[in-house]
Amino acid sequence: MAERIIHTLGRPAPWIPVLESELTDSPNQLATLSFDQVAQRAVERGLLPFKPPAAAQLPNRDAMLAATYAQQAGKTVAWALAAMRQCWCAGRDMADRNTLFLAGAASEIHPNAIEKIFTLKSLNAQLDAATKSASSAGVTHTPAVRIGRTVYFGDDGLDAAVERMEA
């Protein structure tokens, strides 16, 4: 999905990590598609080949803490691309901390930094605050693009957001 966001928006946008599992009971749009349907969308959009992990998954707290740390270091997009490539193109499990270390290495975040993030209270608080803020803004799942007071969700919402930006 990170590849899709960059290709579709075509311009810089803030990436704010949130815990999707705490936003709503609604399923992520991609979770409602079969792996074959997601793979077909990737091919149609010229994205990297799709190799799903053993089970569909939302990034867990550890993964989003790493993303929050990457945000502080100015490496959110690089980390998100690396993590999503590990998960959806290499079939690695986001719950496996080794996957997070690989994403960190690919985005030039030292392994010692990745190791420390899991216990930082300030990072946990920042992630919780971002999740609460997103929920208050009406975000129910990710990715979400907010333009004015309108929030666009999921894969199809990216296209609608681009149409709105170009109008």
How would you describe what is shown here?
With 167 residues, the protein is mainly alpha-helical. It has 8 helices and 2 strands, in the order H-H-H-H-H-H-H-E-E-H. A two-stranded antiparallel ribbon has the order 1-2. Helix 4 crosses helix 5 (97-106). The protein starts with a helix and ends with a helix.
SSE topology:
Layout: H1 2-9, H2 35-44, H3 61-72, H4 76-88, H5 97-106, H6 111-117, H7 121-136, E1 144-147, E2 150-153, H8 154-166
Antiparallel strand pairs: 1-2
- Please give the alpha-carbon distance between the first and last residues: 24 Å
The low-confidence parts are: none
Oligomeric state of the chains in view: single chain
Computed over alpha carbons, the radius of gyration is 15 Å
Question: Average pLDDT across residues?
Answer: 87
Strand order within the widest sheet? Answer: 1-2
Look at the helices and sheets and give the structural class.
mainly alpha
Task: Label the overall shape.
Answer: globular
Please, how many helices?
8
Number of strands: 2
Instruction: Give a quick account of the main beta sheet: strands, pairing sense, barrel closure.
Output: 2 strands, antiparallel
Helix % is 40-55%
The run of helices and strands is HHHHHHHEEH
The amount of beta strand, in percent, is: under 5%
